[in-house]
């Protein structure tokens, strides 16, 4: 399914013109909703502390999760106590719930599970971001909130908006859903605080972000041994993210001998039998987001490559200055 959608949105498939009338309807519905908030018929809820939205205007992965982790570490290094809220994509949550380090991806969502496993940050997930934020404030000692996704969730008032773009795919065919990948038009990029471009080339008014490999870590929660992958090993690579090819290309660029690759749909649920057959006794490597869904049944020769987002010191300074101003105003 995802490969077909990629052809439609990013490779000029002619079916996009057939779907264009539905995109017009989507544009009307979303514009109406934005206007209701603008004129006050729908009320945006303001919180007593700064709120940073990390989102995108395209469907699919663009690098939001590494950006959220980067922000958590940046804010902590400057004495702040961030908390995170998220929808918890792909899981049914009754109301809202806090995410614990031992929570499985199928109970809270793969990205929340990954964020908390990596950072132990206070985090709450739920369909209603305002309710999630209120629980975060009630149950944890936080002084700034990061919303993982939610750019189009206008009920939650925001102080800073960061949009993440895939530097290779950017806006695809430039059309709104379902003919294209856009949730909102390209005009939306002019209204946010920063456009962060993940890889590729950033324009003059954009911030370039790179994802730098950190280290190999075992997928298994009960790892009993096994050698860390080396560049002389033949490995099998898998990825179930928005742009799997990015992961495969990064392995090749580092000089690893990739014997076989297997792309899965973003947010895929994995079965032990399928991945065991795929690995066939060989070293299996994956992304950190995939690993949180496999850690309870992983073999000792399954590894994931942790990556760290890197942004410029200029971006850090601009963001921290804006936050200082917000805190003073609030």
UniProtKB/TrEMBL annotation:
Keyword RNA-binding attributed: no
Domain of life of the source: Bacteria
Pathway per the UniProt entry: Glycolipid biosynthesis; lipid IV(A) biosynthesis; lipid IV(A) from (3R)-3-hydroxytetradecanoyl-[acyl-carrier-protein] and UDP-N-acetyl-alpha-D-glucosamine: step 6/6
Keyword tRNA-binding (UniProt): no
Enzyme Commission code(s) on record: 2.7.1.130
Positions bound to ATP: 58-65
Keywords assigned by UniProt, alphabetized: ATP-binding, Kinase, Lipid A biosynthesis, Lipid biosynthesis, Lipid metabolism, Nucleotide-binding, Transferase
InterPro entries: LpxK (IPR003758), P-loop_NTPase (IPR027417)
Catalyzed reaction equations: a lipid A disaccharide + ATP = a lipid IVA + ADP + H(+)
Its biological purpose: Transfers the gamma-phosphate of ATP to the 4'-position of a tetraacyldisaccharide 1-phosphate intermediate (termed DS-1-P) to form tetraacyldisaccharide 1,4'-bis-phosphate (lipid IVA).
Record-linked NCBIfam families: lpxK
HAMAP family in UniProt: LpxK
Similarity comment text for this entry: Belongs to the LpxK family.
Protein name listed in UniProt: Tetraacyldisaccharide 4'-kinase
């Amino acid at each position: 399914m995802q490969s077909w959608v990629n052809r439609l949105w990013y490779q000029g498939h002619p079916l996009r013109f057939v779907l264009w009338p539905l995109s017009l309807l989507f544009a009307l519905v979303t514009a109406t909703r934005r206007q209701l908030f603008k004129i006050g018929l729908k009320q945006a809820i303001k919180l007593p502390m700064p709120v940073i939205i990390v989102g995108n205007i395209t469907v699919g992965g663009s690098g939001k999760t590494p950006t959220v982790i980067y922000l958590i570490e940046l804010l902590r290094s400057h004495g702040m106590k961030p908390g995170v809220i998220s929808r918890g994509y792909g899981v049914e949550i009754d109301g809202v719930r806090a995410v614990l380090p031992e929570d499985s991806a199928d109970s809270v969502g793969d990205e929340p599970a990954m964020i908390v496993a990596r950072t132990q940050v206070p985090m709450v997930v739920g369909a209603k971001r305002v309710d999630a934020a209120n629980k975060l404030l009630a149950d944890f000692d936080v002084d700034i909130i990061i919303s993982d996704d939610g750019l189009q969730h206008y009920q939650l008032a925001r102080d800073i908006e960061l949009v993440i773009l895939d530097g290779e795919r950017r806006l695809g065919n430039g059309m709104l859903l379902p003919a294209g990948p856009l949730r909102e038009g390209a005009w939306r990029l002019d209204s946010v605080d920063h456009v962060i471009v993940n890889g590729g080339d950033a324009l003059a008014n954009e911030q370039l972000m790179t994802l730098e490999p950190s280290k190999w870590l075992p997928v298994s929660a009960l790892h009993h041994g096994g050698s860390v992958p080396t560049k002389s090993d033949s490995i099998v690579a898998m990825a179930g993210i928005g742009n799997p090819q990015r992961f495969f290309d990064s392995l090749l660029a580092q000089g690893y001998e990739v014997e076989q690759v297997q792309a899965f749909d973003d947010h895929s649920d994995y079965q032990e039998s399928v991945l065991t057959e795929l690995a066939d006794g060989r070293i299996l490597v994956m992304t950190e987001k995939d690993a949180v869904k496999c850690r309870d049944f992983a073999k000792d020769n399954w590894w994931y490559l942790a990556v760290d987002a890197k942004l410029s010191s200029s971006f850090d300074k601009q963001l921290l200055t804006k936050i200082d101003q917000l805190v003073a105003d609030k």
